[in-house]
Amino acid sequence: MLVSVVVPVYNEAENVPLLLEQVQAALAAVPWEYEIIVVDDGSTDTTMARLRECAGSRPGLKVVSLVRNFGQTAALVCGITMAAGEIIVLSDGDLQNDPRDIPALVAKMQEGYDVVSGWRKDRKDPFFSRRLPSLAANKLISWISGLALHDYGCTLKAYRAPFLKSIQLYGEMHRFIPMYAASLGARITELPVNHRPRLYGRSKYTLARVGKVILDLITVKFLFGYQTKPIYIFGGTGLLAFFCGGIFLAMLLYNKFVLGISMIQSPLLLMSGLAVVIGVQFILMGLLAEVQIRSYHESAHKSIYAVRELING
């Protein structure tokens, strides 16, 4: 069995030599072959120079340098694309993820799982700026997705290659990979992993990412729930608008014939008309989306199902 360890790095010059040393030490006694793929995401410090030095003494190390900073998701996708292993382990490059947990993640997969998610149970980060937003995000993602994990934000996870390579990632959606895998039928579990305080370099995390997580989550939920049936969400919203318009119209008629209030003196006439127009627009948008999604699936020959196993096929 070949295991690929993919690590994206950005301005981690001090951490890179220690990272590679610790990864190799952790994998020195494993009973399977492994490869290490480090993707430099357009670092502006001496990270790439350090990686060149390390690659000179480690022939099995693959180093990829991106032309500029594309973001963590793009760097991970690059490493995943290059990975040749049956199992792919993703990890951060800041040394807060402990490489000694990698064998345990892979061993857990031998129990029949397709994804083993790391859980930073004792996280070494500031509470208000890091842990509290992460806790809220994990609760929200688990509630919306139906996949209850304690730590979506932990990069240290192990995947079976067919599931991981079949997922198309964009933006900053790497944190939602377990959701994508679950939609494909993957068996998922989580394992507590060691988390260490950052010793060198600066964190790339900012509170602005909280808003991005929420927007990405809305996108993922729409794609998972309505990608093959967009009329349900657009049409449902349109029917709700029609219902509100009917309520407004009923109130308007009640005011006119029971209370004797003129229709032109009430804003309900405008509100009911506006609700009906909005309802028509949403239903038409849903129909257009249905046409587009059918054209997409038919032209791309994209299947709406996935087969896990075939016997005597």
How would you sum up this structure in a few lines?
With 313 residues, the protein is an alpha/beta fold. Helices cover 49% and strands 12% of the residues. Helix 2 (47-57) links the parallel strand 2 (33-40) and strand 3.
Describe the structure.
The chain has 10 helices and 7 strands. β1, α1 and β2 form a beta-alpha-beta unit. With 313 residues, the protein is of the alpha/beta class. The mean pLDDT is 86. α5 runs parallel beside α8 (208-226) and α9 runs antiparallel to α10 (268-300). The protein has 2 domains: 2-224, Spore Coat Polysaccharide Biosynthesis Protein SpsA, Chain A; 231-300. It has helices at residues 15-27, 47-57, 72-82, 102-109, 127-145, 161-165, 177-183, 208-226, 231-257, 268-300; strands at residues 2-9, 33-40, 61-65, 87-90, 115-119, 157-160, 188-192.
